[in-house]
Specification:
globular; four-stranded mixed sheet; binds ligand EPZ; alpha+beta
């Protein structure tokens, strides 16, 4: 059993200096699935050192891939001897993105048997659009014992698919399934997130023929084979946005480096609306909060709208803004659970379904709070940075899923923050 760790923050120190952003979690998880589509070796650089990636690499290894970590941020993968057997819940339960194995296995072998994954819990997260896409490509899909999704066909057949909902996962999964299909697949109402584009660029580097990624119509001309490639993932838009919100919440000034400013536009615009200074350079952004934060309204939308994965971080930031802000969660059903933890710190919030009204307060005070999921955990840290006194965050394993060394990166910018083992694994075993 793993020891129990918590993160402790003493708020009030303005962040200074700079922070380097790692590779994009939600791009890498798709690229790792994409390596299944070729029998050659793929070398992927700029991967973040986070637990979701480790879990995904372990799944590939369990299924027969040769996985070699060159260093913390670089891996070589060869799925030549990949077995197309069943992927059990034991493997998929720790990482929701494991459902990309459906599209990748189907795309390579013409069949797949994958257990429905686990993942963050904010509302129902159906995969009906993924299934619609696979069926349109000719798969016979059945739901079996142990939540196994089974897909069978001779070979995926190119087709036209119009997504009912703009879905990142469905767009990625259908792309993986269609890239080696016979004929052309036209995917309409597709997601346009940077990580969708990154997957298309990676697959095209392996010899695929995908056009239009980043627009709402993606055309995939099926190819017989893919070859290996060397590829570097894009920087993580959400990690970068999280640090920008943290700098603003702390009243500090710091440079966020290794970013693509274009990917940050919607987040930068919102910070500017809150009275934060944001200056863009080629691959970095300077954030300076020299005056009191102003309120603003947020509505989360598919890219290029304001990302839902930045909603909790702004929820925490706006608890200290002058005035009342309204947050409208346009993507998920239940992504305001973290607000009850902010109320423990003195925030004034009312939540009604997909709407949260945040009345700015003079001061937050430290408290014991829980991370309900990865971005909610980041929100607790952001609130702790601006609170008076000590904040204790538990369930930090959620945070480790998507943030590489968040404590080290914030401490390097002057934050009074540390991780501490509060119960060793022996003590945990005794408790158990
Ligand atoms: C991806 O989840 C991300 N995860 C999420 O990031 C992110 O919040 C989300 O996209 C939206 O940007 C990964 O990339 C691994 P969706 P995904 O399919 O693909 C509904 C994080 O913190 N929907 O775009 O599951 C769905 O319920 C995580 O890094 C259907 O109805 O999101 C939601 O309301 C959290 N049917 C909306 O569409 C479907 O078949 C958007 O979901 C699929 C989705």
């Amino acid at each position: 059993m793993k020891s129990l760790e918590k993160i402790f923050i003493n708020g009030g120190t303005p962040l200074r200096g700079q922070v380097e952003i790692a590779g994009a979690k939600n791009a890498v998880l798709a690229l790792l699935a994409g390596t299944i589509l070729t029998r050659d070796c793929c070398r992927i650089d700029n991967i973040p050192f986070i637990s979701d990636v480790t879990v995904m690499l372990n799944i590939l290894r369990e299924l027969g891939a040769d996985v070699r970590r060159i260093n913390k941020h670089c891996v070589e993968i060869n799925t030549r001897h990949f077995n197309s057997g069943e992927v059990p819940y034991e493997l998929t339960k720790h990482c929701r993105a494991s459902y990309y194995l459906l599209g990748a296995l189907f795309g390579r072998f013409g069949h797949a048997r994958v257990a429905m994954p686990g993942g963050c819990d904010f509302g129902v997260r159906p995969i009906d659009q993924h299934i619609r896409g696979f069926e349109a490509l000719g798969a016979a899909v059945s739901f079996e014992q142990n939540a196994i999704i089974s897909m069978q066909s001779n070979q995926p057949q190119g087709t036209s698919i119009y997504l009912d909902i703009v879905s990142v996962g469905a767009t990625i999964n259908i792309m993986l399934a269609a890239v080696r299909a016979r004929g052309v697949t036209v995917l309409e109402n597709a997601a346009k997130e940077p990580h969708v584009v990154d997957l298309a660029n990676f697959l095209n580097s392996c010899g695929a023929d995908i056009r239009g990624a980043g627009t709402d119509v993606i055309k995939i001309h099926g190819v017989k084979e893919l070859h290996g490639c060397e590829y570097a993932t894009i920087p993580d838009q959400i990690e970068a946005g999280t640090y920008m919100a943290a700098i603003a919440a702390s009243g500090g000034q710091a440079l966020v480096t290794q970013v693509i400013p274009k990917h940050m536009e919607c987040i930068s615009a919102k910070l500017i609306e809150c009275g934060v200074q944001v200056k863009e350079f080629d691959d970095s952004i300077l954030v300076a909060a020299n005056e009191p934060l102003r309120r603003c309204n947020i509505k989360t939308m598919p890219h290029p709208g304001f990302p839902t994965d930045m909603q909790p971080q702004f929820g925490a930031l706006l608890t200290r803004a002058e005035g009342t802000s309204v947050l409208n969660e346009g993507i998920f059903d239940n992504r305001f659970r973290y607000m009850d933890q902010l109320v423990r710190m003195g925030a004034k919030v009312t939540v009604d379904g997909k709407i949260a009204v945040v009345e700015g307060v003079q001061e937050l005070h430290g408290a014991q709070v829980k991370a309900y999921d990865l971005r909610a955990g980041a929100a607790m840290i952001i609130a702790g940075l601006s609170a008076h006194g000590e904040t204790e965050v538990e369930n930090i394993e959620f945070i480790d899923r998507g943030y590489e060394d968040i404590v080290g990166k914030l401490a390097a910018m002057g934050a009074d923050i540390r991780r501490k083992i509060v119960k060793t694994d022996a003590e945990m075993r005794n408790v158990a």
